[in-house]
Amino acid sequence: MVQPSKQHLRRQFLQQRQSLSPPDWHQKSQHIVEHLRQTKWFQQAHTIFAYQSFRQEPSLQSLFDQDHRWGLPRCVGSDLVWHHWQPLEPEQLQQGKYGITEPKATLPILSLTAADLILVPALACDAQGFRLGYGGGYYDRLLSQRSCVKTIGIVFREMDFQALPLEHWDQPLKAVCTEAGFRQPDGKI
Questions:
Q1: Which residues of 129-147 are buried (b: 16+ CB within 10 A; e: fewer)?
Q2: 50-66 burial by CB neighbour count: b if 16+ within 10 A, else e?
Q3: Where are the domains of the chain?
Q4: Whole-angstrom Cα distance, residue 4 to residue 62?
């Protein structure tokens, strides 16, 4: 049996995710946030790199608190630059490249080494912890620079796939969180 291409899967998962009703999307996002809050990784982290929801990615809005230092990415060339962001200050955000909400360039930059935990958006994840993104390679480049940091792929359960097609540059995540719970791929770590 021929495995579908990444492009085909991107279209399929994006369409599936965008077909969620707003109440379902919100409820599933809330369950993901509850599971994240219960993990030791979140509880022990000081600096967390996260994201702003785009194209009905799971929303982390209710996760953002004043107990952690938060970093949000900004697309600069082919890389992500991380900025310190205060969750209660929405004026620090703007629409950036690709229409994604990102921090203003004037906010303090955070070094990748500052991250205790990175919450990674994805269209899909698989049993081994590999993710399917939008195809720009931003997170694979980021993860190849700092493979020791704890990373959690954030997806809805319907997009938690058995096996995704892989390229040599794909970087696995350390864990995946869906509305059904938190899991580490195949017992790794």
A1: bbbbbbeebbbbebbeeee
A2: bbbbeebbbbbeebbee
A3: 6-181
A4: 35
The CA-CA-CA angle for residues 60, 159, 27, to 5°, reads 40
Least confident of 2-6, 88-92, 118-122: 2-6
Total-model pTM = 0.93
**Which amino acid, residue 170?**
D
Burial class (CB in 10 A: 0-12, 13-18, 19+), 106: exposed
Domain 6-181 fold: Rossmann fold (3.40.50)
Tell me how far apart the alpha carbons of residues 135 and 170 are, in angstroms, rounded to a whole number.
11
CB 53 within 8 A of CB 61: yes
pLDDT digits 0-9 by tens, 115-141: 999 999 999 999 999 999 888 889 988
